[in-house]
Amino acid sequence: MAFVELRSITKKFGDHVVLRDIDLAVEKGEVIAIIGRSGSGKSTLLRCVNGLEGVDAGDVVVDGVRVNDAKADLRALRARIGFVFQGYNLFPHLTVERNITLGPLIVKHVGREEASRLARDALRRVGLADKAHAYADQLSGGQQQRVAIARSLAMSPMLMLFDEITSALDPELVGEVLRVLEAMARDGMTMLLVTHEMNFARRVASRVLFMHDGRIWEQGPATDIFGAPRTDELQNFLGAVLN
Amino acid sequence: MIRDLSWIDPVYLVFALRWTIGLTVLALLGGAPLGLLVAAIGNTKRPAMRWLAQGYVGIVQGVPLLAWLFLFFFGFPIMGVEVPAWLAASIALSVYASGFLGEIWRGAIKSIPRTQWEASGSIGMSYAEQLRHVIIPQAVRIATPPTVGFVVQLIKNTSLASVIGFVELTREGQMTAAATLAQLPVYLMVGTLYFILCYPITVYSRTLERRLRGVR
After folding, report:
1. A57-73: per-residue pLDDT in tens?
2. How far apart are alpha carbons B94 and B34 in whole angstroms?
3. Which of the four CATH numbers 3.30.450.20, 3.40.1010.10, 1.10.3720.10, 3.40.50.12160 does domain B13-212 have?
4. Buried b (16+ CB within 10 A) or exposed e, A193-221
5. Three-state DSSP class for residue B72
6. Less packed terminus of chain A by CB within 10 Å, N or C?
7. What is the ipTM of this complex?
8. Which of B116, B125, B215 is the closest to A89 by Cβ?
9. In a domain, A80, yes or no
10. How many A×B Cβ pairs under 8 Å?
């Protein structure tokens, strides 16, 4: 069984079908970039993987755990899956360090010193060792997003999900966030990322999924997806975003 | 026998204030935990639980405090339990406070963006952990001014406990007025004492509102 498996999942919001009968298998160490127009179901797909959205049909299985099973220990699973949001979603009432130590302290029950050490390590990895005592509103968007990544890293995740994490950033701040992602990919982290950064997807992704109308319309290595799109929809999409 | 109003009467009135304050404290000790429970239940994902909380708030707010006082004061003896007036009043005021505080706090919790729930849920926190470490600390900021405002209401409403014979400020005033027939001066004093107690809290509430409007 693959590390992450989506088996013919369907998701509706009311009458609107967002995901149609999607199958996907992700192996450990893969870096999957999910591209497509807004409304194509990319973010919903990602949110189904850690159970932020339930599915209406099909199964989501991560590391052998059926996410959509009511009896599944979703909390234990989520503790091992990092999720980074477009809007950072830092906890505004806590310092950067407390944002990061909260998960280890409350969910993993590590000691205070160990949690601080994890936070310092994670902050160093995202290049913000000096911001431990700042609050979110004192940081730039790029810095906030890197703290959000550090918050996930401190939980030693087995899988990272990134939901358009550079879309809300000013262009000059995108690079610093992508560099962190690239380093994580090099370290062998399994990653699913919804992104509009085509160059980044081309460079880092081991596989690219193009979503259209709630389906995985086309997928393959980045060279094929960007170099030799087979469908009109992908050609149109690439034509629109690459120019 | 009618006596004249003397210097000792204001002193008695001031001393009666301690029962007004005591009753307020008891009502908060009972009402706040219950209100927190109502707020927590009222924000769960389960519709049945939310209806339960909403129904409770609806009933508590829809029945006058006076009726709650009568209900507990005369209701317990019917069930064979004798309760002193202070206890019946404390229970009635606790129920009353829980309904209003529960609704204030439910609304404050609800106003915290969904994304904060998602972020905390995504690192594996339980509902209670999310509330305690992420949601409530932020909701407190929003809830504090209306909560303090409600405490002022509560202080004034303890005066209703006088009708079941609990001697707090208003009841003390009634007795003094009956003994001296100096109704106007006595009730002016009673009113002034309530004002002296409540006004600083109102001012404090406004200060808090200004201070808490900023971030963090």
Report:
1. 999 999 999 999 988 89
2. 8
3. 1.10.3720.10
4. bbbbbbebbbebbbbbbbbbebbbbbebe
5. helix
6. C
7. 0.93
8. B116
9. no
10. 67
